[in-house]
Amino acid sequence: MNKSFLLDLLVDPISKESFQYDAVKNLLICPISKNEYPVIESVPKIILNENDAISKSSIHNQFNSPFSYIDHYQKDAEIFDYLENSIPKASKFELKRLREAIVNEIPGDGEIVLDVGCGGGWLSEKIIPLGKKVISMDISTKNPINAVKRLKHENHAGLIADVYNIPLRENSIDCIVASEILEHVSDPEVFILKLLGVLKSNGKLIITTPYNEKLEYSLCVHCNRLTPKSAHLHSFNESNIDRFLPKKGISRSIRIFSNKYLAKIQPHLFISFFSFRLWLLLDKLFNKLIYKPCRLQLMIRKNNS
After folding, report:
1. Reported pTM
2. pLDDT computed for residue 117 by the predictor
3. Which end of the chain is more exposed for a tag (fewer CB within 10 A), N or C?
4. In sequence order, what DSSP letters do the residues of 17-50 get, joined into one string?
């Protein structure tokens, strides 16, 4: 692991103390706690196997079943292609607009951006050319390693870690993006609190999630219990999202967008060439005519203490 901006931000999630890098053993070692974590292809892996410490989702409580979320998303990354090579054309355009909505909200003056659940690392490719430093973080081993391989840059670092035991200094990150993640986590309130903890004062947390999604279930062929489609555990809208947010210390805004029908016709019309702002105006018009938005975008500012 080369000396990088990431090493200065990392802390042992147990002791909250800094690391030293042992180049011979290729380990991050905390001198205080003596805890050691491997570095895999230049990407630190700082994972604690503490599944039991995280509260279960309602469906796991209902069936009294375990949720080994770390194991689940390690396997998820092995099975699914996060480069979106095979998704339908209409979905690609909807995804393009979603990503434009995210990039449009990233503060111009923020230097370090944490991409939580980085998947294929698309965000780093978009904003590192704009002068940002990006940490592509994922709970899977595969995704951050592949993201760093695809974009090798001094301002790009990978991190294999878990938000519930996030190994970053408090008040150290300028902007955090968690796109299409919140619906998957067992405890959204704790998830958001952990991210706000590492965010600087006046920093910005950008979250996107499906809007008012009707959760669908199927019967698992392995355990013979109901399992949610795409592992979505929660559905969010402008009414219920606030109950997962702190009551003080933040300000927030919400954007409801991405009309279902506009997304379907967009690839077949000149609309696909619209700028994001022009497309957004058209999207608002469609939602006034037929209210079928697909996405909720939540922007949280951490107030100065």
Report:
1. 0.92
2. 95
3. C
4. ---EEETTTTEEE-TTT--EEEEETTEEEE----
